[in-house]
Amino acid sequence: MFPRRVLCGIQPSSVPHIGNYLGAIKKWIDLQNSGDNLIVMLADLHAVTIPREPDVLRKSVLETAASLIACGIDPKRSIIYRQSDLYHHTQLAWLLGTLTTVQKVAHIPTYKSKVKDESSIPLGLILYPVLQSADILLFKTTHLPIGEDQIPHLQLCTYMIEKFYHYYKQNIFPVPQMMATETNRIRSLRHPEQKMSKSDWEERSRIDIMDDEKIIREHVMKALTDFNAKISYDRQTRPGVTNLIDIYSGITNQPVETIVAEAEKENLNTGAFKKRLAQIIIEHFRSKRIEYLKLMDDRSHLLSILNEGRERAHEIADKTLNEVKHIMGFN
User: What is the DSSP letter of 201?
Assistant: First the structure.
C-alpha cells in the first residue's frame, strides 16, 4: 500500500565524528546504493531545543551537509534538505500534539534523562518527541535506521498513528519499521566506558571524520588502552583496545576475529596496531576530506543542493499535510 521510504535524521553539530559515521552515515550510504528511496533530514529544529548561537548553527548545518555529501550521500539519488526549510514539520507536529499528552511524552527515557529541574522544563524538550513523530509521518516513512535508544520515540509515533485512525477512521500512515543500527558501539577514545560524543569537552576523545592527518594520528595514538601490549577483544576487561578494534572493523568491514588473528600472527603490540589504524582511517577519509573542502569552498553550490532538496521534500510534505488537514476538517 505504501512505497518503501527511508528517513534518516541527523542534528547539525558541525562535522560528524567517526562514531556517527560508522554507526549511522555509512549505513545510510549502503541503503542509498542498494536502491532505497532515501530522505536525509538536517534536523536543525531539533538542534534548538535550547537556544544556540545563530552563526554557529548556520555554519554547523553547512558543515554537516558537506560532510554527508562528501562521504557519499548523492543529492541526485537521495533527498537532502534542512528541516527548518519546510514549515510542514511544525504544523504537522501541532496537529499531532492534539493526539497525545504530556504524560505520554514524559515516559520517554531520553526525555526523562534530559530533565534536570522539573520546576523549569523547557517547552522545546516536551515538544521534541512530537516533532520527531511529525518528521516521520510527514513523508509516510516506512523504514527508520535508528538505534535502540530511539525505540520509545518510534512507539510514540505508532501510538499517534493509532490515535489518528481511532479519531478519523482514515488509514493514511504506514507503521514505520525499525532498521537497527549500532549507534552506541563506538566509544570515547579517552573514556571508553562512555560513547563517543561531540559534547565531550576533551577533543582527543573523538575523531571528526574531516580531521587532518596530524590530528587523526595524534588522537589514535593517545587513545586510552591498558598495560597489556597484546591485541585482544573483550568489552568488559579491555574496553579501550576493543574500541579500537571496533573502529578498525567498521572502516575495513573485516570481522573482529580476523583483525585479532592477523594482529597475533604479526605479533603487533598496541602501539603498532594504533599506527596501522591511524593510517587506515586517514586513507579511508582522504578523498572524502578533499571533496568536503571543495564543497565548503563553494557555499553557493552547497546551498543550491540544499535548495533543490527542499523542493523535492516540499512536494512530498505538501501532499501529506494537505491530506491530514483535509481529514481533520481544515480545508
Answer: S
Helical spans, DSSP H, in the chain:
18-20, 26-33, 54-71, 88-97, 102-106, 109-114, 123-138, 151-168, 213-221, 239-252, 256-265, 270-297, 299-328
Residues 60-69: pLDDT tens digits?
999 999 999 9
Per DSSP, helices labelled H in 39-181 are 54-71, 88-97, 102-106, 109-114, 123-138, 151-168
Q: What is the DSSP letter of 46?
A: G
Q: Are strands 79-82 and 38-42 parallel, antiparallel or unpaired?
A: parallel
* Helix 270-297 with 54-71: angle, nearest 10 deg: 110
Any idea which fold 203-293 has? Tyrosyl-Transfer RNA Synthetase (1.10.240)
What is the grid cell recorded at 203?
577533543
Q: Give domain limits for the chain.
A: 6-185+299-328, 203-293
According to CATH, the topology of domain 6-185+299-328 is Rossmann fold (3.40.50)
pLDDT digits (tens, 9 = 90+) for 119-134: 678 888 889 999 999 9
Question: Is 0.90 surpassed by the pTM of this model?
Answer: yes
Angle at CA of residue 131, ends 47 and 16, nearest 5°: 30
